[in-house]
């Protein structure tokens, strides 16, 4: 047995040396001309490139084959064939000739029949010459064009299994010409094998795939502007780079070496791997730098079947069904095989309230049943997907410049895997039913509540919370007693009861008017006071959607938020019922000199800190992350103890636009409180709320309204005025005179400084609410110096005129911006 093995090794060693041995006495030529050819006779000649890098000649493959092929190899490494002319039409015996015959380059057998020729489109060459370039490119040229870049034919256009430096793999999109790799059939048979590696341009998208026996073995995922979505972040390669080009004319991949002295190539082997090899100086042996696909199972195409996600490193359980899906064969799944994939738990009904779950950092599914629109952004894409009942997932196709292009899928999602890539994350959004959306949100809420609980380290705070929850729970139970609805989560009120309580929405009962509709005072027959908010009718939401939203908001509970007691949805009516606040809103106190004196400074300071804590709760409530969007003094209500409670929170969600960093077409807010980026770009985020909070804080300290602020020396608004005073070192002058008897200088200055930090022009300069809370609570903390506030420009007197117009109107802005891309 061992002897046999030894013998085989010996034979293959000798055979592998065969070409080497042959060529050691071979003659060399530097071009094929009508007078000069390559002959496979006893007088072996080879064609060598000028820099002695590559060599072309006749060879036989290792093994027992007697077939002769015309091939190319590195002169330094003859046993590695990098290109073959006649791989599928071998010479069956020696004495072949590679020559120019009657103006054509041809490979002839011993009886001088043409067995291979390059496919030259412009067929007549006057006086052709074939040269081997130092890049490993065999080119056919007119003699007068020699040494120019004009080729009649080049071997780079017809690669076999090897990608050399500078060779393009992919498509010329103008002519539809494709270059791709095909492996050898086996180690001793260079004819076209079953493994191919090809680029694919489908409907404007670019990806590559490796197929074995016509079935996909590996897919790179689409080109997302930075990388193929299924290939890890660009490898830090020292000897070569991989260049991708995808434009109107061409779609290709190319290896470009960075170090001219190192030899490297990529070779597709018949077991289905592309190996990137380098030839190190000392060893004269190929070293595999990396292999694609990698040996991770998740790289193998559709490893987890349909609608499942493969996560590497989760060994041995690699596969998870996507949210909303369940294994189509539990048995198979238990046996740790996954080919059957997953199916929907419950079919999507295409109802209202369906939404999407983001699956972050993945390789996008295969382009099987899909549609692509290059011009849509993520937001438009989401809408388009939501509006088509058979659309089950979407994603940005291009992740550069903040993301663009809309890819939507309609059938099974195949070949998804985790693909962490710092700085070039590709995300996928999967459609979920309304019920699934709800349960996800509930789960998130539970999680955050738990986190908040564990975060309330001080037992005092904890005790308070417990007490607070108990009271709320009791209160809710009481309210529920009046409800006809079976729903445990959401107390609903009967419209008739509300009509009676508000005296048929009598104008005399109106106690306020927010951005989303008027607020009435109501008194139930039991004597309980309520604040009843009748929402304007343009929320555009259906019954279920509205109810889901309210169910979420009702669960937001914080001492600095007005408690939502329930709702009433009947016919056209959408009504929210809140606890009643007898002490009205903050604006009643701060802008009124007399009332202000009834509240000493420490009460005001307390109110500021309360608002900050309430807002912090809204912002950091994890998945829900409510951006208030209309924070202003009149939305801060005061309870019996004059503790502040934020009202109208969460309404922005009900009125659409709950996307956090997305642009919105509709701006809802109040002049004087909206941030510059919100007005100008329609962009809103938690930092827009921070801006509004800063305005409220400066208004509270100064007792002046930002918008209608007037000063005899300049035309700036309150923010500008505060900024000027701050720079002059006279910040304390901003303080409302009503605090003269009670103020604490350090606290007032701290409030002004934090206020100025909050109203800075650029959102990224503004602190988050958690820093704001920290800065307000900690006397000793060092504060950064504020930069220029937003809207720091003097108003023209013309605008002054329009001020009164705005204050006559509802004070609510609804601006429609042209839909941006
Ligand atoms: C080829 O041979 C012809 C005549 O036999 C001669 O005129 C010509 O110069 C030769 N060309 C080269 C490149 O040697
Ligand atoms: C072998 O090549 C040499 C030089 O190219 C030439 O002189 C000789 O005639 C050739 N012999 C045969 C048998 O072709
Ligand atoms: C050369 O090729 C021709 C055409 O393919 C074939 O008929 C002939 O038998 C071949 N000659 C040899 C010696 O193989
Ligand atoms: C040669 O190329 C032309 C187009 O360039 C193509 O249509 C034809 O099929 C090719 N022939 C062979 C034998 O490859
Ligand atoms: C490209 O991929 C699509 C989808 O996988 C397939 O339908 C098409 O035939 C492929 N085209 C080529 C040229 O391989
Ligand atoms: C490598 O060779 C190419 C062409 O021969 C040349 O243009 C390039 O400057 C060289 N690069 C280095 C780093 O020497
Ligand atoms: C093909 O490449 C893979 C990955 O480097 C390697 O494991 C395998 O042995 C190679 N197969 C052959 C036939 O060279
Ligand atoms: C490899 O050898 C070449 C030629 O001897 C030399 O120029 C080059 O610097 C060497 N490269 C390395 C990495 O040692
Ligand atoms: C949904 O999209 C598919 C694929 O683009 C399309 O065939 C179908 O007509 C669309 N359905 C609707 C209702 O727009």
Automatic annotation (TrEMBL):
Main location: membrane
EC number of the protein: 2.7.11.1
SMART domains named in the record: B_lectin, PAN_AP, S_TKc
Domain Apple, first and last residues per copy: 350-433
Domain Protein kinase as annotated: residue spans: 505-791
InterPro entries per record: Bulb-type_lectin_dom (IPR001480), Bulb-type_lectin_dom_sf (IPR036426), Kinase-like_dom_sf (IPR011009), Pan_app (IPR003609), Prot_kinase_dom (IPR000719), S-locus_recpt_kinase_C (IPR021820), S_locus_glycoprot_dom (IPR000858), Ser-Thr/Tyr_kinase_cat_dom (IPR001245)
GO biological process: recognition of pollen
Reactions this protein catalyses: L-threonyl-[protein] + ATP = O-phospho-L-threonyl-[protein] + ADP + H(+); L-seryl-[protein] + ATP = O-phospho-L-seryl-[protein] + ADP + H(+)
Localization in the cell: Cell membrane
Parts of the chain that traverse the membrane: 451-471
PROSITE patterns: BULB_LECTIN, PAN, PROTEIN_KINASE_DOM, PROTEIN_KINASE_ST
Listed Pfam families: B_lectin (PF01453), DUF3403 (PF11883), PAN_2 (PF08276), PK_Tyr_Ser-Thr (PF07714), S_locus_glycop (PF00954)
Signal peptide: 1-26
Topology of this chain in the membrane: Single-pass type I membrane protein
Bulb-type lectin domain mapped to chain residues: 29-153
Keyword list, A-Z: ATP-binding, Cell membrane, Disulfide bond, Glycoprotein, Kinase, Membrane, Nucleotide-binding, Receptor, Serine/threonine-protein kinase, Signal, Transferase, Transmembrane, Transmembrane helix
Gene Ontology molecular functions: ATP binding; protein serine kinase activity; protein serine/threonine kinase activity
CDD domains found in the cross-reference section: B_lectin, PAN_AP_plant, STKc_IRAK
GO CC list: plasma membrane
Recorded family membership: Belongs to the protein kinase superfamily. Ser/Thr protein kinase family.
Listed name of the protein: Receptor-like serine/threonine-protein kinase
Originating species: Morus notabilis
